[in-house]
Amino acid sequence: MKLFDTHCHLNDMVYDKDIDAVIERAHDAGVAAYMVVGTDKTSSIKAVALAKSTNNIYASVGIHPHEAQSCSESILECLINLAENPKVCAWGEIGLDFNRMHSPQDDQEKWFIRQLEIADKCNFPVIFHERDSKGRLLEIVKSWHKKEKKGVVHCFSGNRTELEQYINLGLYIGITGILTLKQRGADLRRLVRLIPLEQILIETDAPYLTPAPEKNRTRRNEPAFVRTVLLKLAEVRNEDPEYLASVTWENSCRLFNLKKV
Questions:
Q1: 261: in domain
Q2: Radius of gyration of the chain measured on its C-alpha atoms
Q3: Are 36 and 90 in contact (CB under 8 A)?
Q4: CA–CA separation, 172 vs 63, rounded Å?
Q5: Any residues with CB less than 8 A from the CB of 159 and at least 6 apart, and which?
Q6: Does residue 114 lie in a domain region?
Q7: Which of 26, 86, 151, 246 is the Cys-Cys partner for 31 at CB 3.0 to 4.6 Å?
């Protein structure tokens, strides 16, 4: 199987000492491409550097809602310059997170909308982050979104109504290791059956959200474990794993406008 981890943070410092071994393990598991996601200026710079140094790594740049209160036009200008590199294929992760409120809601919404404008101007697909926004992210996205614009709802964990609205907007749905967790993933296992094949993606969010059974032996997630996500997804949807791997690969390349991978 050829797998695409469409959302990971290999730019996190937890990989600094053994990133070559992490990439080797991923290769052995069938991972042939990675999207390394930026969440602030520093992580975006690091994501682009990783992408430039490794053939099958791609990068996104963006300001995560947790970092919104420290965002500025000068920081966004830096990201726009970074995004001129051909290995940058998306803008994000951006969105709204009203769970921990690391940044005030006004700041989150202001810089989310501003980054949607930039992504639109640069013709980038968007990587969306949403947590407990109580429909506000959907409101904003609906006012911005057109069918020809592309994006992915990273680590989907919402309800059926939200899922159906994302699907109707033509957005891709990113599925993480939460799917494998007995209690936390129960609702998600019911909902993933509703996602059209052409709109589903697999991701790890590494180093976070380690799937089962890997979480029983390590706290740190890594791209190799996206294989576990794929196998569980195939099981839940009653689909052939090889076929589902092929479909999610094609979906990933289509989203990120990658013609030769």
A1: no
A2: 17
A3: no
A4: 20
A5: 187, 191
A6: yes
A7: 26
Residue ranges in 128-225 assigned as alpha helix (H)? 136-144, 160-168, 186-191
Residue 93 phi/psi, 5-degree rounding, is: -100, 135
For the segment 70-125, what is each residue's pLDDT rounded down to a tens digit? 999 999 999 999 999 999 999 999 999 999 899 999 999 999 999 999 999 999 99
3-state secondary structure of 77: helix
What's at 236, amino acid-wise? Answer: V
Chain segment 161-210, per-residue pLDDT in tens: 999 999 999 999 999 999 999 999 999 999 999 999 999 999 999 999 99
How many structural domains compose the chain? 1
Which residue segment(s) compose the domain that 154 sits in?
A: 3-255
- Residues constituting the chain: 261
Distance CA 59, CA 38 (A): 7
**42: domain CATH number?**
3.20.20.140
d(CA 236, CA 190): 8
Instruction: Answer whether residue 260 is part of any domain.
Output: no
Q: Is residue 16 part of a domain?
A: yes
CA distance 58 to 178: 24
Distance from C-alpha of 24 to C-alpha of 3, rounded to nearest angstrom = 14
Q: How far apart are alpha carbons 247 and 244 in whole angstroms?
A: 5
How far apart are alpha carbons 126 and 15 in whole angstroms?
25
User: Of the candidates 5, 1, 77, 20, which has an alpha carbon nearest to the alpha carbon of residue 242?
Assistant: 1
Question: What letter represents residue 201's amino acid?
Answer: L
